[in-house]
Design brief:
The chain has one domain: Sulfate adenylyltransferase. 24% of the residues lie in helices and 29% in strands. This is ASCH domain-containing protein.
Length: 132
């Protein structure tokens, strides 16, 4: 499903690696709890390029429907073991230990985990929510 104008050519993505996780994380974004996200640098490509400050992307729900637009505020590329508690808490998924355990499991499911793996750490804000 294509995002509405003026976002029809925006980068689109889902959080997580399942429809259930996509909806769970999207709910945290829409509630204002989740204002940051990270991904393995190795997983970015032409279809989902590394975010840049000022870029606006469309977040899809678990069914692939456009749910909201986020604007990237900042991007930091750093090692997994360099992510600080403030960033982990901004991801909205609980205290640092919960963030760490959840992300290790996620990366193990999606290509492997290592403490020195490079992450793209993004802070963002919601700029528009779509009717669904």
């Amino acid at each position: 499903m294509k995002p509405p104008a003026p976002y029809e050519n925006a980068v689109t993505f889902q959080f997580g690696d399942s429809p259930e996780l996509a909806d769970e994380l999207l709910a945290l974004v829409l509630a204002g709890t989740k204002t940051a996200t990270c991904g393995a640098l190795r997983d970015f490509n032409a279809q989902e390029p590394v975010p840049e400050a000022g870029r606006r992307d469309v977040v899809l729900d678990g069914r692939g429907h456009p749910a909201c637009v986020i604007e990237t505020l900042s991007v930091l590329i750093q090692r997994f073991d360099q992510v600080d508690e403030a960033f982990a808490v901004a991801e909205g998924e609980g205290p640092y230990e919960a963030w760490r355990d959840g992300h290790i499991a996620y990366f193990e499911r999606n290509g492997g985990y290592a403490p020195d793996m490079m992450l793209v750490c993004e802070r963002f804000r919601v700029v528009e929510v779509f009717e669904r």
